[in-house]
Amino acid sequence: MRILLVKLSALGDVIQTLPALALLKRELPFAEMDWVVEERNAQLLLHHPYINQLLIFKKSYLKAPEKLFRFIQNLRSKKYTAVIDFQGLLKSALITFFARSKYKIGFSNHREGSPFFYNIKFFPYPPDLHAVKRYILLAKKSLLFLSTGKEIEPEEETIPRNISLPESAPQFFESKKPYLILIPSARWKSKLWPFEYWEKFLVFSRDLREVLDFYFVGGKEEELKSFTEEMSRKYKGVISWVGKTSLTELAYLMKRCKAVISVDTGTMHLASLLNKPIIALFGPTSEQRTGPWSEKFLVLKENLPCQPCFKRDCATKSCLYELKPERVYLALKEFLRILEGKFIF
After folding, report:
1. How many other CB atoms are there within 10 angstroms of residue 207's CB atom?
2. Do residues 319 and 300 lie in contact, with contact meaning Cβ atoms separated by under 8 Å?
3. CB 44 within 8 Å of CB 164
4. Torsions phi, psi of 162, nearest 5?
5. What CATH number should be reported for the domain whose range is 2-157?
6. pLDDT under 70: residue ranges of the chain
7. What is the C-alpha separation between 134 and 33, in angstroms, rounded?
C-alpha cells in the first residue's frame, strides 16, 4: 500500500499534521508514505523516518509551465492507493487531482472549492476543532475507509509525543545555565505582542534572569533582529538567536529549554510537537483551533468582545495591547513554580 499526504504549508500546519502521519504509520506499518510539501517547509521533513519520499513543490512552478509540467510528471510516476489532502485548499486539491490514485480524499467542507476534486468526501469537521485533532480525524476516517480491519485507539491517545525530528546543535551554542525561549515573531502583524511590552516583561523578569537565560529566536526580519540584539545589550541574561538558527538547530535548542513563551506562530507548534511547556500569547486567533497542544501549557489572552476576529491586520490591536507585561511575568513565575513543584524563585 502506498499513500500520499498533501500538506504544503504553512510551517505550523505542517508540524500539526505530523501526529496524523504517525497515526497512519502506526496503523499501516508496512505502507509507504510520501508527502508533498512546499520548499520552505521541507527542512523539517527531510529524512523523517516515516516518509518514504518527499515531493517538494516550489511556488515558482506556478510561473514556469515547463517546471510545473515536470513536477506533475514526477508526481504521476507513482500510483497511490490513496491521496489524502490535509491542506484543503485549491492548490492542494489540484495536486491531489493530478496524482495517480483510485481514492482522492478530503473533508466536504474544505475550502476554495477543493472538494470538487475529491471522489471520497467525508462529512464536515467541526469548525472549532483544533487543527491537530482535525488532521487526526481525517487520518482516522481514511483508515476506516481503507478497511484496515483494526480498532483505532481513542482520539486522546492518537497524538504521539515521541516523534523523531532532525536536529543539529548550533556551533555557537554553549548552555551555561537553564534557559527559556522567547518567540516574538509571526507572519500576521495582528499576532505580534508589542516590542515595548517584551522589553517591559524583561524588566519585570530581572529576578528570573538571575537563574535563567532568556533566548529570543525568530526569522531574519531586520526590525526584529535589531530589537532583540538591543535587548541582549541592555539586559543581563538576554541573548538573541534571531536569524542565526536553522529549523533543525531550533529543534535542538527547543528540546533542551525549560519552557517557551510565544505568540501564535509556527514555531510555537514545534514546541508543542516537542512537548515543551508553553505560555502562549493570543490575540486575534482562537486557541481552540490553533492553540498549543503540549501536555503543559497556558494561554494568556484578554477575552475582548472582538476576539477572535482572525484579521491579519488591525488598526488598534487592542487584544494584545491589553495583555500587559506584568501579567505575563506573574504568569511565567507561577508557571515555573508549578513545573518545578516547589518554590525556587
Report:
1. 11
2. no
3. no
4. -110, 40
5. 3.40.50.2000
6. 148-164, 166, 342-345
7. 19
Domain boundaries, the chain: 2-157, 179-340
CATH number (3.40.50.2000, 1.20.1560.10, 3.30.70.120, 3.40.50.720) of 179-340 reads 3.40.50.2000
Distance CA 90, CA 96 (A): 10
**Pairwise CA distance, residues 134 & 139, whole Å:** 9
Which ranges in the chain belong to alpha helices (H)?
11-27, 65-75, 90-98, 131-145, 195-204, 222-234, 247-255, 266-273, 287-290, 318-321, 325-340
Please give the pLDDT value at position 158.
Answer: 53
| pLDDT for position 168 | 80
Q: If 0-12 CB within 10 Å is exposed, 13-18 middle and 19+ buried, where does residue 298 land?
A: middle
Burial of 128 (0-12, 13-18, 19+ CB in 10 A): exposed
Contact 1, 28 (CB under 8 A): yes
The answer to whether 58 and 39 have CB atoms below 8 angstroms apart is: yes
CA–CA distance, 87 with 114 (Å, rounded to integer): 9
